[in-house]
Amino acid sequence: MVQKPQNPQYGTQTYVYTKDGIFVSEDGARSFKFVKETNGRIYLQQTGCVSLPFLGQIAINFYIAQKEDGNKLKESVSKAWAERDGKKYYLLNEKYSSVMYMSSCPNIQVSFTKGLEGYWGINKIVDKNSAFVVYDSNGALVNASLVTGINNVKLPQNGTIVFLGNPQAKFRVKYNTVLK
Hints:
Radius of gyration: 21 Å
Distance between the termini: 62 Å
Helix content: 10-25%
Strand order of the largest sheet: 3-4-5-6-7
Number of helices: 3
Mean pLDDT: 79
C-alpha cells in the first residue's frame, strides 16, 4: 500500500508485488520498480498508461524518486528551519507582470512531514539561508550549491557567479589570479 504524506487527498493505493521485483497497481495500469543505475544510486521507476480527457491514453516511463540515506542537519540549520514552520512566505523576485502573480496566490507555507526530518516536502534542506550558482561563459550551469552540496568550485573563465540569500548571508571567496 502506498500513501503520499504530502498529498493525503489521494488516499491509499494498493500495489501487488510480482516475482520480477515489480509492484503493479490492482488495475494493472501502473507499475513501480527499483532501479540501480551506473552512478550507484537507486531510483524508483514508474511505468504505465494515463488517460487524458479528449486525448486518449499515453504511455509513461520515468524515474519519480531517488533513494536518500537521510539528511542530518546541523543544529543551527535545524533550528532556523523550525522557526519557519507554519509561516507563509511570499514571492518577491518576479516582475510585476509575471504570470506567477496571476496564476495563483504567490505564497507558500512552510510545513514539515513527521518522519522526514531534513526535508521540506520533496526538497532537501542544505543550509539556513544561502546558496550560490555558477555559470560558464555561455550561461550553462556549472554548479548550484543548493542542489549539489558542493561549496568549493572554480569559476570558469568569463563565467558568472550568483550569490543568493538573506542580507546577513556570508560567503567566503578565495581569489586566484592567473595571467596568461
